Amino acid sequence: MPYRIGKYTLGFDQPPAVLSYAAVGSKKESEGPLKDAFDFIEQDSYFGEKSWERAESRIQRESVNRALEKGNFDPTDIDYIFAGDLLNQCISSVYGLRELGIPLFGLYGACSTMAESLSIASVFIDSQAAKRCAAVTSSHFCSAERQFRFPLEYAGQRTPTSQWTVTGGGAAIVGIGNKPPFVRGITTGTIEDYGIKDANNMGAAMAPAASATISRFFKDTHMNPAQFDLILTGDLGYVGSGILLELLEREGLDIHRQHNDCGLLIFDREKQPDVQAGGSGCGCSGSVLCGHILPKLQRGDLKDVLFIATGALLSTTSVQQGETIPGIAHLVYLSSQAQDEAFPTRERASQFDGRKEKR
Amino acid sequence: MDWMMYLKVFLVGGALCAIGQALIDYTKLTPARILVSYVVTGVILGGLGIYQPLVDFAGAGATVPLTGFGWLLSKGVKEAIAEKGLLGILSGGLTATSAGIAAAVIFGLIFALIFKPKDKS
Read out DSSP for A316-342? Predict the structure, then answer.
């Protein structure tokens, strides 16, 4: 059963295992440093479909199907699927997963969806509400431009702080298993709003959310950054990553050595200058996690990873009405071991609470 | 051929575009707002008679950028007022720019029918 650690964090008595995973990408992703991480790459941004929205649905379907295939699962083996994307009413998930016949919980967490879906799937598994769950998300550069900025037909200029939405997706099947990677714990983010209004600078809007969630995780678990190989944020990009490090430093947390960002890993900003501040989108953290990080955890190349997917909770309407852009960040603690000394057990976590009450 | 004219067109047109690029790079203005403000600036400068000398000096360098569209709107209004009186305030702008607007609509339609949009990679 899941148990509470501090105010924001959950631990799992029997950490759910990621049984299978798959990542999908397109042309720009295949030209980046992680080109070998993808299970499926389609050079044509239409993915053979008639619209980019349909292409994104295809990405999501392909991600799930590849993950099912790799784990030798049938759709009927999956009890629930947690899915979301960036388009209005999450249509990529709806049309992409329509034929699978798996009970669906549609999520909207903007680009934090991979961590959000993985979090809820893990709680379902450890609470024995399900045997196997799938967590999936996707994004598409062209459909996201139409959704949030301008249709590509308009041919607008891009600003230097803007990020490049990844055309890709990731799917993870979570269940009970004895092979790594394991989901050890989660810290769910709160909505953080520092008053950023520039929809072309989402890294800055999301950094405070990432900072809040990361510092809460360390406060709740009494752990420190040195105990992790990698602290991986979702898609803060170049601008947002700098702000995150600065914000955490002010709280006395130095994660310079461990920190990296999916948006900086997936593209090479020098060789791919049009990505500007780096990659973004649900598919950014989704495909980097499912194509690059999970395999490393499985092989044991990485032992302890904090995965913090970040989302900017804006809509076109809110931006046009001059609202600020709130951010959210969900943390998932992934490990190559199911148990160890460092992460608080149920007993130790209950002592933390006791100490607080005495004060 | 008047090579000096080419140079003037390039310098003036280029300068107007460079200002737009600087606005994209260094301010939070969205491309749509920059676009609209260019047109409005052209209307104001045209109305005040400041833009006409620039058109005389640089030709297409001043008329092709969006400020030129604004200038044409104001020019049309001025001419229509002289011809028809007050009604010209409403009819002059679109009359003067009708060729540009009709061309944008017609060519937009034709190219939308022929081509399918692609991403920039």
Answer: HHHHHTT----EEEEEEEEES-S--SS
